[in-house]
What we know:
By secondary structure, this protein is mostly helical. The protein is built from 4 helices and 2 strands. The longest helix has about 55 residues, at about 120-175. The protein is elongated and about 125 Å long. It starts with 11 loop residues before the first helix and ends in a 7-residue tail after the last helix.
Amino acid sequence: MFCRNGRERPDEHDLRDCPEDQDKERIIMLRNEFIPVRPDMWRDKMDCTVAVGLGHGNRDQQLMHLSSLMQFAAQAMKGGLSIINEKNLYNLGAEMVKNMGFRDVDAFLTNPEKVQQQPGAKEQMAQAEMQLKKGELDVKVAETQIKQQKLQLEAQKMQQDAVFKTAEIQLEATQGRPVGIG
Protein backbone atom coordinates (compact mmCIF):
# COMPACT_ATOMS: atom_id res chain seq x y z
CA MET A 1 0.00 0.00 0.00
CA PHE A 2 1.32 3.41 -0.91
CA CYS A 3 0.64 6.54 1.05
CA ARG A 4 -0.19 9.96 -0.22
CA ASN A 5 3.44 10.93 -0.65
CA GLY A 6 4.17 7.89 -2.84
CA ARG A 7 6.33 6.15 -0.24
CA GLU A 8 5.58 2.75 1.12
CA ARG A 9 5.71 3.75 4.80
CA PRO A 10 3.56 6.56 6.07
CA ASP A 11 5.31 9.36 7.85
CA GLU A 12 3.94 11.57 10.61
CA HIS A 13 2.26 13.96 8.16
CA ASP A 14 0.38 11.16 6.43
CA LEU A 15 -0.95 9.82 9.72
CA ARG A 16 -2.09 13.31 10.63
CA ASP A 17 -3.83 13.83 7.27
CA CYS A 18 -5.45 10.39 7.08
CA PRO A 19 -8.20 11.07 9.67
CA GLU A 20 -9.04 14.38 8.05
CA ASP A 21 -10.05 12.58 4.85
CA GLN A 22 -12.72 10.61 6.72
CA ASP A 23 -15.30 13.07 7.96
CA LYS A 24 -18.18 10.60 8.39
CA GLU A 25 -18.92 8.63 11.50
CA ARG A 26 -18.54 4.89 11.03
CA ILE A 27 -19.76 2.04 13.22
CA ILE A 28 -17.16 -0.65 13.87
CA MET A 29 -17.06 -3.71 16.11
CA LEU A 30 -14.49 -3.43 18.86
CA ARG A 31 -14.28 -6.00 21.66
CA ASN A 32 -17.62 -7.56 20.59
CA GLU A 33 -19.45 -4.23 20.84
CA PHE A 34 -20.46 -1.87 18.07
CA ILE A 35 -19.13 1.64 18.66
CA PRO A 36 -19.20 4.84 16.59
CA VAL A 37 -15.83 6.08 15.32
CA ARG A 38 -15.04 9.59 14.04
CA PRO A 39 -11.48 9.57 12.64
CA ASP A 40 -11.59 13.33 12.08
CA MET A 41 -11.81 13.80 15.86
CA TRP A 42 -8.58 11.88 16.59
CA ARG A 43 -5.57 13.66 18.00
CA ASP A 44 -2.55 14.27 15.78
CA LYS A 45 -0.20 12.12 17.82
CA MET A 46 -1.44 8.68 18.77
CA ASP A 47 0.13 6.25 21.18
CA CYS A 48 -0.16 2.66 20.16
CA THR A 49 1.41 -0.59 21.18
CA VAL A 50 1.75 -3.52 18.84
CA ALA A 51 1.73 -6.92 20.49
CA VAL A 52 3.09 -9.66 18.27
CA GLY A 53 2.83 -13.26 19.33
CA LEU A 54 6.50 -13.97 18.66
CA GLY A 55 8.81 -14.75 21.52
CA HIS A 56 6.07 -15.19 24.12
CA GLY A 57 5.79 -18.96 23.96
CA ASN A 58 3.11 -20.98 22.29
CA ARG A 59 -0.52 -21.12 23.27
CA ASP A 60 -0.09 -24.21 25.42
CA GLN A 61 2.57 -22.50 27.51
CA GLN A 62 0.45 -19.37 27.87
CA LEU A 63 -2.56 -21.48 28.84
CA MET A 64 -0.45 -23.27 31.45
CA HIS A 65 0.67 -19.91 32.88
CA LEU A 66 -2.91 -18.62 32.92
CA SER A 67 -4.10 -21.81 34.65
CA SER A 68 -1.47 -21.46 37.38
CA LEU A 69 -2.46 -17.81 37.76
CA MET A 70 -6.11 -18.89 38.11
CA GLN A 71 -5.12 -21.37 40.86
CA PHE A 72 -3.20 -18.63 42.65
CA ALA A 73 -6.22 -16.32 42.40
CA ALA A 74 -8.53 -19.00 43.82
CA GLN A 75 -6.18 -19.61 46.76
CA ALA A 76 -5.86 -15.88 47.38
CA MET A 77 -9.64 -15.48 47.49
CA LYS A 78 -10.03 -18.49 49.81
CA GLY A 79 -7.36 -17.03 52.08
CA GLY A 80 -9.24 -13.74 52.28
CA LEU A 81 -6.69 -11.65 50.40
CA SER A 82 -8.21 -8.65 48.68
CA ILE A 83 -5.73 -8.62 45.80
CA ILE A 84 -8.22 -10.39 43.47
CA ASN A 85 -11.73 -9.21 42.65
CA GLU A 86 -14.48 -10.31 40.24
CA LYS A 87 -13.19 -8.14 37.41
CA ASN A 88 -9.68 -9.62 37.76
CA LEU A 89 -11.09 -13.15 37.60
CA TYR A 90 -13.20 -12.25 34.57
CA ASN A 91 -10.15 -10.80 32.79
CA LEU A 92 -8.14 -13.90 33.61
CA GLY A 93 -10.90 -16.18 32.34
CA ALA A 94 -11.29 -14.05 29.22
CA GLU A 95 -7.59 -14.39 28.44
CA MET A 96 -7.87 -18.15 28.89
CA VAL A 97 -10.84 -18.31 26.50
CA LYS A 98 -8.99 -16.20 23.92
CA ASN A 99 -5.89 -18.34 24.31
CA MET A 100 -7.96 -21.44 23.64
CA GLY A 101 -8.79 -19.93 20.25
CA PHE A 102 -12.34 -18.74 20.88
CA ARG A 103 -13.08 -15.19 19.80
CA ASP A 104 -16.34 -14.56 21.65
CA VAL A 105 -15.54 -14.40 25.36
CA ASP A 106 -19.13 -13.43 26.21
CA ALA A 107 -20.32 -16.84 25.05
CA PHE A 108 -18.39 -18.42 27.93
CA LEU A 109 -18.11 -15.75 30.63
CA THR A 110 -20.32 -12.94 31.90
CA ASN A 111 -18.69 -9.59 32.48
CA PRO A 112 -19.36 -8.57 36.11
CA GLU A 113 -19.71 -4.93 35.05
CA LYS A 114 -22.67 -5.82 32.83
CA VAL A 115 -24.47 -7.80 35.54
CA GLN A 116 -27.05 -5.84 37.47
CA GLN A 117 -25.79 -5.31 40.99
CA GLN A 118 -27.58 -7.31 43.69
CA PRO A 119 -28.47 -5.36 46.81
CA GLY A 120 -25.98 -5.77 49.65
CA ALA A 121 -26.73 -7.14 53.10
CA LYS A 122 -27.26 -3.65 54.56
CA GLU A 123 -29.63 -2.71 51.76
CA GLN A 124 -31.56 -5.97 52.22
CA MET A 125 -31.83 -5.29 55.96
CA ALA A 126 -33.07 -1.75 55.29
CA GLN A 127 -35.64 -3.07 52.81
CA ALA A 128 -36.78 -5.71 55.31
CA GLU A 129 -37.15 -3.06 58.03
CA MET A 130 -39.14 -0.84 55.67
CA GLN A 131 -41.44 -3.74 54.80
CA LEU A 132 -41.86 -4.56 58.49
CA LYS A 133 -42.73 -0.95 59.32
CA LYS A 134 -45.12 -0.82 56.38
CA GLY A 135 -46.77 -4.00 57.66
CA GLU A 136 -47.09 -2.51 61.16
CA LEU A 137 -48.59 0.64 59.69
CA ASP A 138 -51.07 -1.43 57.66
CA VAL A 139 -52.10 -3.28 60.85
CA LYS A 140 -52.62 0.01 62.71
CA VAL A 141 -54.69 1.39 59.83
CA ALA A 142 -56.83 -1.76 59.84
CA GLU A 143 -57.31 -1.53 63.64
CA THR A 144 -58.36 2.11 63.32
CA GLN A 145 -60.86 1.20 60.61
CA ILE A 146 -62.31 -1.57 62.80
CA LYS A 147 -62.67 0.83 65.76
CA GLN A 148 -64.36 3.37 63.49
CA GLN A 149 -66.79 0.73 62.21
CA LYS A 150 -67.58 -0.34 65.82
CA LEU A 151 -68.28 3.28 66.76
CA GLN A 152 -70.56 3.66 63.75
CA LEU A 153 -72.44 0.46 64.72
CA GLU A 154 -72.84 1.70 68.30
CA ALA A 155 -74.11 5.06 67.03
CA GLN A 156 -76.64 3.28 64.77
CA LYS A 157 -77.75 1.07 67.67
CA MET A 158 -78.18 4.09 69.94
CA GLN A 159 -80.12 5.86 67.21
CA GLN A 160 -82.40 2.83 66.80
CA ASP A 161 -82.87 2.61 70.58
CA ALA A 162 -83.83 6.29 70.63
CA VAL A 163 -86.37 5.71 67.82
CA PHE A 164 -87.84 2.74 69.75
CA LYS A 165 -88.04 4.75 72.99
CA THR A 166 -89.74 7.62 71.19
CA ALA A 167 -92.23 5.20 69.60
CA GLU A 168 -92.83 3.54 73.00
CA ILE A 169 -93.45 6.89 74.72
CA GLN A 170 -95.85 7.96 72.00
CA LEU A 171 -97.72 4.65 72.18
CA GLU A 172 -97.98 4.90 75.98
CA ALA A 173 -99.33 8.44 75.66
CA THR A 174 -101.99 7.41 73.14
CA GLN A 175 -103.08 4.26 74.98
CA GLY A 176 -102.73 5.61 78.48
CA ARG A 177 -100.99 2.53 79.81
CA PRO A 178 -97.39 1.31 79.97
CA VAL A 179 -96.20 -0.44 76.79
CA GLY A 180 -92.92 -2.41 76.26
CA ILE A 181 -91.60 -2.56 72.72
CA GLY A 182 -88.77 -4.92 71.88
